[in-house]
Design brief:
Elements (H helix, E strand, L loop, with lengths): L1 E3 L1 H5 L11 E3 L8 E7 L4 E7 L2 E8 L2 E9 L9 H5 L3 H4 L5 E5 L5 H9 L4 E6 L2 H10 L8 E5 L2 H7 L4 E6 L14 H9 L1 E12 L5 H9 L4 E6 L5 E7 L7 H11 L7 H6 L1 E2 L20 H11 L6 E3 L2
Parallel strand pairs: 7-8, 7-10, 8-9, 10-11
Antiparallel strand pairs: 1-15, 2-6, 3-4, 4-5, 5-6, 11-13, 12-13, 12-14
Length: 318
């Protein structure tokens, strides 16, 4: 049995990974000023501004991880590569009317979709009340009946929900890690159980870490159809897992891209072209499973949320 620690994962990262970009805490760019810094039971959060760009960082072990970046000169666009790539979910299911976002950050993905899809209902969930507060204060989160923020752990929210969604987006990073209870077969089964028949789960995966094959195999153990889209920079994979038993081909994916292109402001057909079928992971990597009995979920959620602040441990069999 092997445990991987955050420091081992960081040693494998490329230097300029979007959304995981790191820097020493004091090494701010010239002209970057701190608007506010807050600490909760879950994160140390910093919001900065440089010119027209606001950035939300998570500070872990004296490193700053970019959580969200908002260019206020283009307030209804997606500034980060990985965020644009996560729109691949709409290439598998273009008929999304109700979505859930797990991991709010600055709320830029959900705000973007709220602005561009006027009939979309959104549930945005984050365990950290300070993240939610700062997102509302500095990042233009919509104040509207069809955009709802929930301060809850994402696993508990899913397990206790009565709702079914067309789209569930997973981006609940805390620095370089995702709490273990949000990475297991049982968690993904709960997600699948709350999807509509053609619904999809979209996960942001970093394809140059040792966790990547475990994540791929764990998702594959639950969902009948899976699709990978590589980011523009190549170091992240948007993994789209579908509840539908029907496999979509490349031509259908391109047709869906043409349907969605008028609604988005980036190269959606280019995103469709980054759909790939090659296997870039090991098929024998262990599937993640809950390390707790089902009746102890609340206690396990609290334990994993706390231990993943620093030195997150992922249990695998070797």
């Amino acid at each position: 049995m092997r445990h991987w620690h955050r420091r081992e994962l960081l040693s494998l990262l490329p230097a300029a990974t979007a959304a995981w970009a790191v820097s020493p805490r004091g090494a701010r760019a010239a002209g970057e000023r701190v608007l506010e810094e807050a600490e909760s039971d879950y994160n140390r959060v910093q919001v900065t501004e440089r010119g027209s760009v606001r950035t939300m960082y998570f500070i872990v072990e004296n490193r700053r991880y970019i959580e969200s970046r908002w260019d206020m000169s283009r307030p209804h666009s997606l500034d980060l590569d990985y965020a644009r790539t996560m729109m691949a979910g709409f290439l598998i299911n273009p008929n999304v009317t109700h979505m859930m976002m797990m991991g709010l950050g600055g709320g830029l993905i959900t705000s973007y979709l709220f602005d561009r899809l006027p009939n979309l209902e959104i549930d945005a969930v984050d365990v950290d009340p300070e993240v939610v507060r700062l997102a509302h204060k500095y990042f233009g989160i919509p104040n509207h009946a069809r955009y709802r923020t929930h301060v809850r752990d994402g696993r508990l929210f899913i397990e206790q929900a009565n709702t079914r969604w067309d789209l569930i987006m997973l981006d609940a990073f805390r620095g370089a890690s995702v709490p273990f209870h949000l990475k297991t077969k049982e968690f993904y089964q709960a997600c699948l159980g709350h999807l509509r028949p053609d619904g999809v789960v979209v996960a942001n995966l970093h394809n140059r870490t040792r966790m990547y094959p475990h994540d791929r195999n764990t998702l594959a153990a639950v969902f009948p159809q899976r699709y990978g889209f590589v980011s523009e920079a190549g170091n992240q994979t948007t993994f789209v897992a579908s509840a539908s038993p029907r496999r979509l081909g490349a031509y259908t994916i391109r047709d869906h891209a043409r349907t969605m292109a008028p609604r988005f402001d980036f190269d959606v057909l280019g995103l469709a072209a980054r759909y790939y079928l090659r296997r870039d992971w090991e098929l024998d990597a262990a599937v993640f499973k809950d390390d707790f009995p089902a009746d102890q979920l609340p206690q396990a959620v609290e334990r994993h949320n706390q231990t993943c602040i620093e030195g997150c441990r992922y249990q695998t069999h070797t």
